[in-house]
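HUMAN: Mind making up another protein with tokenized structure?

ASSISTANT:
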Amino acid sequence: MRGGSPTRLPSTTGWTRGACSTRWRVSWGITPEFRLVFAGSRHPNPQVGETRAARDTRTQPDRLVLAGHRVFFLDWVPYDERASYLLEADVVVSTHLDHLEAAFSYRTRILDALWATRPVVATSGDALSDAVATRDAGIVAPPHSVDALAYALAELVEDPVRRATCGAAAGRLGCERRWSLVVRTTWCSSVGPRLPRPTASIH
């Protein structure tokens, strides 16, 4: 959404200063009417608190008097409310660092974006980002590449046709990742007819 209401570009992972700097540049430099929203910028557990990267990120819009006007920070969004924010979004951003956990993770935030039929900008290195790239459900950039992430965001922000095309592809990909389909094979094999066990004869 543009104009008076903030466009939702929720960042759910990847509090890296380079990535966040990129999003500021896209937010105010390329299309000034867009708004940038960080969902889940503060962990719900008070003992966890904010990371240094998250704190540093909050200071950047303050320097340019953008906080509360074009850049918005939300505390942890309750699970039951996440759909409302996603459906208001034009693009969903999910970034992470290049490490072992990312490679073996299944990023459910991307699944939520696919459910909401929203194009995804993500960093590479895991199964879902591979699917996003292969199915043209968004644009994938290498971790740590500020320029590549900026280009991916700019392309979707500036091109409504590409954004709509990727959003439609995201919806199709999301349908294929529904639980009713994903677990069907396992369910059928567990409740379906079983073959009789072979009997061994002793001579």
Summary: Residues 1-19 have pLDDT under 50 and may be disordered. The radius of gyration is 20 Å. The domain at 17-180 is CATH 3.40.50.2000 (Rossmann fold).
